[in-house]
């Protein structure tokens, strides 16, 4: 093993892929006093978010290590109207082997090739995904509850969760009723998420807040806190279908809510930005956010995921540049 490979491998560390186990979020009774008086300074949030990419520069072997870390936290996603079992099978093959074999060798990871964090599909595509991923250890996540609008009757949304779980989904990405947050109906939002959490059974629940629809960072903070109190295992920014999806100021607000909830309860809850993360630089910015705001435990896929499809191709392209010193055309890499 040459010095270049050894240095990158050392940067990855022994926990480069393995997740540290932690108890699931048990939720709490609704505590409005935890969020009603919270004020958020938009300008300060934007200034803090702007420092993340500018103040830290991750280069060379360290950048390769961080990009592998980002890869292991991707929820590789297809949520298209023309999805087919064949497309899902292809996506799952990429999830199993997200990097070409020569790049895995250059990284010195032949003994433990990296895989993505999960594959995310519609409920009717769960069964093909489960079959394609059998034996890989990669979980299948399913959107549910009338994704992306979440405006079907609650009974139908709960039935959709049960269907996806019965098909084999280990993670359920639900969407909240944004109107509850916009109108300050926190008890209604709490009851809705709690019912969804109960219906998930053993499957982890990721609560999609649809932050682009919530208008203010205060609403984002409050909805984050209510979803966690109701038992969400993850809070997620967006469906990817809103006009505005994941942004760093919104993500900063949500991870501050995660930190506050952990201080109140001792429970760690995960975070998933989704929508608009397309480049390796985006992935690095969000990793820096998690590291600086929440610390090392939130750099593992049991507490951090990135909802993405095309992001993986750019990460592979950047790792190829690290390994060879040359940039390839984006078309050279199989699109996830």
UniProtKB/TrEMBL annotation:
InterPro entries cross-referenced by the UniProt entry: Aldolase_TIM (IPR013785), DeoC (IPR011343), DeoC/FbaB/LacD_aldolase (IPR002915)
Gene Ontology terms: cellular component: cytoplasm
UniProt enzyme class: lyase
One Gene Ontology biological process: carbohydrate catabolic process
Pathway membership: Carbohydrate degradation; 2-deoxy-D-ribose 1-phosphate degradation; D-glyceraldehyde 3-phosphate and acetaldehyde from 2-deoxy-alpha-D-ribose 1-phosphate: step 2/2
Chain segments carrying region Disordered: 1-25
EC identifiers of the protein: 4.1.2.4
Entries under Pfam families matching the protein: DeoC
Family per similarity comment: Belongs to the DeoC/FbaB aldolase family. DeoC type 2 subfamily.
Name by which UniProt lists this protein: Deoxyribose-phosphate aldolase
């Amino acid at each position: 093993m040459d010095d270049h490979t050894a240095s990158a491998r050392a940067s990855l560390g022994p926990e480069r892929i393995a997740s540290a186990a932690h108890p699931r979020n048990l939720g709490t009774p609704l505590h409005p006093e935890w969020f009603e008086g919270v004020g958020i300074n938009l300008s300060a949030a934007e200034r803090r978010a702007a420092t993340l990419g500018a103040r830290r520069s991750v280069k060379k072997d360290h950048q390769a290590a961080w990009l592998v870390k980002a890869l292991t936290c991707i929820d590789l996603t297809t949520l298209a109207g023309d999805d087919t079992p064949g497309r899902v099978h292809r996506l799952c093959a990429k999830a199993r082997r997200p990097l070409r074999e020569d790049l895995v060798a250059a990284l010195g990871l032949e003994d433990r090739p990296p895989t993505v964090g999960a594959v995310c599909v519609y409920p009717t595509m769960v069964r093909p995904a489960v079959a394609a991923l059998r034996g890989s250890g990669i979980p299948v996540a399913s959107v549910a509850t009338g994704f992306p609008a979440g405006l079907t009757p609650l009974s139908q949304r709960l039935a959709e969760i049960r269907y996806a779980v019965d098909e084999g989904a280990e993670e359920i990405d639900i969407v909240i009723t944004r109107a509850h947050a916009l109108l300050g109906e926190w008890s209604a939002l709490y009851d809705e998420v709690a019912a969804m959490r109960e219906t998930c059974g053993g499957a982890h629940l990721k609560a999609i807040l649809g932050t682009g629809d919530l208008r203010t960072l205060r609403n984002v903070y409050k909805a984050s806190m209510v979803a966690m109190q109701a038992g969400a295992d993850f809070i997620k920014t967006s469906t990817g279908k809103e006009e505005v999806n994941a942004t760093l100021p919104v993500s900063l607000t949500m991870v501050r809510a995660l930190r506050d909830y952990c201080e109140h309860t001792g429970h760690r809850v995960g975070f998933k930005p989704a929508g608009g993360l397309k480049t390796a630089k985006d992935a690095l910015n969000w990793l820096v956010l998690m590291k600086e705001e929440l610390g090392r435990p939130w750099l593992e896929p049991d507490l951090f995921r990135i909802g993405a499809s095309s992001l993986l191709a750019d990460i592979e392209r950047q790792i190829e540049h690290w390994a060879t010193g040359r940039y390839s055309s984006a078309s050279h890499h199989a699109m996830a």
